[in-house]
Design goal:
By secondary structure, the chain is mainly beta. It has a single domain, classed as Coagulation Factor XIII, Chain A, domain 1 (Distorted Sandwich). It contains two helices and ten strands, in the order αββββββαββββ. The strands form three sheets. Strands 3, 4, 6, 7, 9 and 10 form a six-stranded mixed beta sheet that branches.
């Protein structure tokens, strides 16, 4: 009886431990929108009430709650190879990288990665302002040291994706990651930044959103942008 009672207590205690355990969601960011349009001129409001998205990353799924795609499959956070990120794939192929998931390889033609269940391709012009949005994912809290987002834009129009090393020669903007709306939910706070489209001939180009969370820990999102 004593043995049975002790076993029962052990089982109950074990179940209590597991029932109190809540898995922590992965919290790495990605480009939620490539071409965010504000409803009010001169006011940067990254919330769904403050604007709308008119251009997306490759194969970006529509009708998903903002900031939820770290727990969905395939996830959107592609981490480049940690030891040598500058030699890693520029865009996720759903297999490579420390956190495989989304497929952001170039479609042939590029338009096949957009429309239907996916968001639209970004269409813009030289000199236009593009505003990119991303979720904070607990990395933009008050007092935290802010990291930077690189915006890289290929110079090769209507061409295959270039390497990460080549993209790093074409960094057109450095954005502040913690440029976010205020709010208590540090995971789902919307953030973003804007930049001018540089001189390029008319065509379709690879644009890369690239964010460093920690030293040599980079996350990327890839998009095609059509310059008219």
């Amino acid at each position: 009886m004593v043995l049975k009672s002790s076993f029962t207590i052990l089982v109950v205690a074990t179940l209590a431990v597991f029932s109190s355990y809540t898995p922590q969601a992965e919290a790495h960011s990605w480009a939620d929108c490539i071409d965010w349009k504000f409803k009010k001129s001169g006011k940067q409001d990254w919330s769904d009430k403050g604007g709308k998205c008119t251009g997306y990353a490759r194969r970006y799924p529509l009708n998903k709650a903002f900031g939820s795609l770290d727990s969905a499959w395939p996830n959107r956070h592609y981490q480049q190879v940690h030891k040598n990120p500058s030699s890693a794939l520029a865009c996720s192929n759903r297999k490579a990288g420390a956190e495989p998931g989304s497929d952001e390889t170039r479609a042939n033609p590029p338009s096949k990665a957009y429309g239907g269940k996916y968001g639209k391709m970004t269409v813009t012009s030289v000199g236009d302002t593009l505003c990119v949005r991303w979720p904070a994912k607990n990395h933009a809290a008050k007092g935290q040291k802010s990291s930077k987002v690189q915006i890289n834009l290929s110079k090769s129009k209507n061409a295959k994706d270039i390497s990460q090393k080549e993209l790093l020669k074409n960094t057109i903007a450095q954005l502040t990651f913690s440029n976010c709306n205020s709010g208590k939910n540090e995971d789902r706070r919307p953030c973003g930044g804007c930049f001018k489209v540089p001189v390029r001939a008319k065509g379709i180009y690879l644009l890369q959103w690239r964010w460093m969370l920690n030293k040599n820990e980079w996350y990327t999102s890839c998009a095609d942008i059509q310059i008219k």
